[in-house]
Design goal:
The complex is a heterodimer. By secondary structure, chain A is mostly beta strands. Chain A contains no helices and 11 strands. In chain B, the strands form 3 sheets. In chain B, strands 2, 5, 6, 10, 11 and 12 form a 6-stranded mixed sheet that branches. In chain B, strands 3-9-8-7 form a 4-stranded antiparallel sheet, with no helix packed on it. Classes of the chains: A mainly beta, B mainly beta.
Chain lengths: 114, 111
């Protein structure tokens, strides 16, 4: 199993406050991702990174920013949290291999914006 | 853009019944296809994958065959157990190396 740690695992915050979620990997994988999971939508890509300081937007990036200053850490920031950002957030990493682009997930961060 | 369509759930089966969860996709290029499983309160786990046409992925009794001609990757299991109750996600990766997911199908297996 790929070593992925998300923190915090659970957080309740107020509307308008900034929130940062952290994803830490113990492997040395190049690609890291942030997804959000909502009922009826499956998982949707927020942002991803393909190297240190190299990031790109996903399909639901509005209201989110990311940073990757080290290979092992990928931070997701909600600049000013809104109730629509209440969700479960999953970090994932991509493990290069001969059989294709297998992606492994962390255990999730439950965020509630009140 | 890339997309994945899964049958809506929940799917409710009795133990030892045959399972099929349909998945079709739209993608440019030659995507890799995946099934992920999510047990209650947990993250997603890779169940199986296939990287080219006619490949069959298999794991824990589950199987899926990459059908390019029908753009499908249906998940099957010959005899489900109560412990298989979970949400199943079909997904693909294409040019961006990021997964595109279907909306998920909840499976409930009754004793």
């Amino acid at each position: 199993d790929a070593g992925i740690t998300q923190s915090p695992r659970h957080k309740v915050t107020e509307t308008g406050t900034p929130v940062t979620l952290r994803c830490h990997q113990t492997e040395n994988h190049r690609y890291m991702y942030w997804y959000r999971q909502d009922p009826g939508h499956g998982l949707r890509l927020i942002h991803y990174s393909y190297g240190v300081k190299d990031t790109d937007k996903g399909e639901v990036s509005d209201g989110y920013s990311v940073s990757r200053s080290k290979t092992e850490d990928f931070l997701l920031t909600l600049e000013s949290a809104t109730s629509s950002q209440t969700s479960v957030y999953f970090c994932a990493i991509s493990e290069d291999g001969p059989s294709g682009n297998t992606i492994y997930f962390g255990e999730g961060s439950w965020l509630t914006v009140v | 853009g890339d997309s994945v369509t899964q049958m809506e759930g929940p799917v409710t089966l009795s133990e030892e019944a045959f399972l099929t969860i349909n998945c079709t996709y739209t993608a440019t290029g030659y995507p890799s296809l995946f099934w992920y499983v999510q047990y209650p309160g947990e993250g997603l786990q890779l169940l199986l994958k296939a990287t080219k046409a006619d490949d069959k992925g298999s794991n824990k009794g589950f199987e899926a065959t990459y059908r390019k001609e029908t753009t499908s990757f249906h998940l099957e299991k010959g005899s489900v157990q109560v412990s298989d109750s979970a949400v199943y996600f079909c997904a693909l990766t294409a040019s961006r190396r990021a997964l595109t997911f279907g909306s998920g199908t909840r499976l409930q297996v009754q004793p």
